[in-house]
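Hey all, quick one. A colleague (J.T.) asked me to put the adenosine-5'-triphosphate job into the tracker so the inputs and the structure tokens live in one place instead of scattered across chat threads. No bug as far as I know, just bookkeeping. Sequence used:
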Amino acid sequence: MNDPLNDIPKTLPIIPIRNKVLLPSASLVLQVVRKDSVQLLQRIYRSAENKESKYIIGCVPIHPPSYNKPEPKDTTNSSTAPFTVTRNGNRNSTPKRTIEETFNQSIQPSDLHEFGCAARIVKLERTVNGFIVRIEGVIRIRIDKYVLERPYLEAEVTVFPDPLVPKDDQELQELANSLKTTGRELLVIFQNLKFPTAYLIQLQKYIENGPIGLLTDFLINTIECTYEERLQILDAHDLKTRMSIAIELLARQINILKVTQKVHSTMSKKHKEFYLRQQLNAIKEELGERDDSSNEDDDITDLTKRIKEAGLSPEANKVAQRELKRLKRMHSTQAEYQVVRTYLEWLSEIPWSKSTSDIIDIDKARQQLEDDHYGLESVKKRILEYLAVLKLKGDLKGPILCLLGPPGVGKTSLGKSIASALGRKFHRISLGGVRDEAEIRGHRRTYIGAMPGLIAQGLRRVGFNNPIFLLDEIDKVGHQSNHGDPSAALLEVLDPEQNNTFNDHYLNVPLDLSKVLFIATANQVDTIPPPLLDRMELINIPGYTFEEKINIAQRHLLPKQITNHGLSLEDVKMSDEVLLKIASGYTREAGVRNFEREIASVCRAKAVEYANAKDKDELDKYNKEITANEIENILGVTKFDSEVAERAARPGVVTGLAWTSSGSGGILFIEATQMAGKGNLQLTGRLGEVIRESAQIALSWVRAHAFQLGITTSETESTFFFQRDVHIHFPAGAIGKDGPSAGVALTIALVSLFTRRQVPTTTAMTGEITLRGQVLPVGGIKEKIIGAHRAGIKKVILPARNRKDVEGDVPVNVKSEINFVYANNIFDVLRGAFEGEKIWSDSTPPIVEFESRL
Ligand SMILES: Nc1ncnc2c1ncn2[C@@H]1O[C@H](COP(=O)(O)OP(=O)(O)OP(=O)(O)O)[C@@H](O)[C@H]1O
């Protein structure tokens, strides 16, 4: 057998234990929540090597409040210290504490007993409040001196190994024999009581082979005795004293057990069960298989109180009470205990009946929206109408508002403004990339690590049941897959008829979401699942024009960034020209997010300049006005020239209008070239199926009208197209492109290529074409035109049936700076693209003109 002495260092970290005495050979499970011990175990937990079972600590009992400290004694003397704990010092007199109180409680060396037990950590588990640790007593120790008090106690110790019983010590030999006889007697009783076999084997081993000191401790561990009696045994490092006390205690226990066995045979079944249960608990406790029940009780009392205060719905309360009952029956080391406990914590933290009171003051809301956002008049108007209806009707049963627009146009910040106008809490739920229904609805509790979904989590975070939830990027939520359908879960969330009984899989009780005000945001409408779209009212926020961006910057972004950088509004001035330079030279976006970032860089540079001037006491030299030249010094050379200016007009190159998946509009170039070949058409630039088909249609139309357009010399000539290959490329090959709206631009690019005529780079076009040359309307007109305006386009050719979109939605200043050409057919486009020049002959009347008369 290993000498335990070898394992025990001279200095040991100390874990003080309350109401318990650990003896060598016993094991104990402790729920550790007090700060000092938690910090000690944290250190052990962190260092991987120390997590092994070899880590040794000292376990020392804390004196109960009524403990009278014994007189200092000569520890070399073999006699045991006078025992002075009164009966009042038992566990029942210990005051109950909450977890927090226990955590903050500080233990002084003077509170601790002089003797303790060195123990080996065999299991260490993290819990919500601290640790659960299982320790095994190794050997008696006496504390000589505390060498550390914070963050945890550490002490120099003397260890007391048990000597072997000397053959010639008659008295000791007799005591040992008597102890073994008592042990055998107990073994028989325990066998009758059906004690665990492993325990019985162990006891038998100790009785037959000793060592006698360990057998004494092992027996005392099993029997019922008071706290004081156990302390007495702990203090008795001298074998003779320990055995004498133990024999007395064991004899008492045997008597009790004998009487019990008699009573047992006469008891009713119910009584017996109760009695056995009590006994089982006591035995478990003695064997160290029950942890500090006072802490566990504290925990459950605390939870019960919190559940009572949370004002649960009747259904939730029923479930909570059932689970509480289960929890009480469980042992805190059981894995299921933590699962149930976490569930109950969730139930207690959902705001079932806590609401903020609404302030629906339309004037105040109007003011708030005005203060926070420039422009967006129609959006603000619609939001105010919505709030007015909310005020009159008093419920939220209506369509959900969905703010639709490119990134950085203020969708999120509009949501925040609405929340602060209403005095409600605001929470943003990002739906981008949500592929799993469980993310919305939670995982069932049977899963390991199950959690409630985003909605329930949001409610817990805000702490009130009537917040504003901004469902961000609802267009990016996943559809039906083998992980369920997140959009179907959202449907339930957003449906006012169903959402008062929303079922989160984890909570598994109906949640009332009818008081939550949902606002959604999306970049594009196409990918929003139709049933969701059906429940929402779209409010379009197209991109901003330069003029709007400058106004937003002067009123909101610049003041915000100046103050963010510790300057006062008077310290930095930027003219509209400078702001325009930043917006056009350094950003290319529909919103203002990058613009704000660039303004922040300028403010940072100004803050450095200001601080330097202040340090040198030269504030008079500091120039608060920022010039256009300074901008280049701060932000570097301009990142973007006018997109149109980058290009020179060439045959085969045409400017189209695009609408990106993020909802912002812009221009795109189409380049066509021809080479000797066999009549093949090659397309590049990451193109989708539809745009490829548009290119085929365009080529077929051009081939069909080649003679009329002067490309071929006779109507029957076919060699022209069979002797050359055509290659069409859409630059910015990294970005995928698709959709039918490039049809018109593709046709014009091919006509320009074959007729060697140029289209001005400031002319852009959009529209779908049919094989017969008709121009069909397309979507995203407003965004495309605002984007084109930003790019410096002067003329836009677009389908005649899109005229209403231009007249209705496009800002006036944009309309006034762009010349619009509305086309019914491709000949109208040709006329517009080639500056009114009629490049075709009328020898054959164009088929489309005939069609257009239909
Ligand atoms: N009209 C406006 N008036 C004042 N500030 C604005 C306006 N539009 C946008 N902003 C500001 O622009 C920044 C970006 O806005 P926000 O984050 O709300 O954009 P978003 O549309 O939600 O973008 P995303 O779709 O990427 O989430 C914010 O600081 C916001 O205050």
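Adding what we noticed when we looked at it: Residues 680 and 725 are 5 Å apart (CA to CA). Residues 373-376, 407-413, 472, 521, 552, 556, 591-593, 596 surround adenosine-5'-triphosphate (CB under 6 Å).
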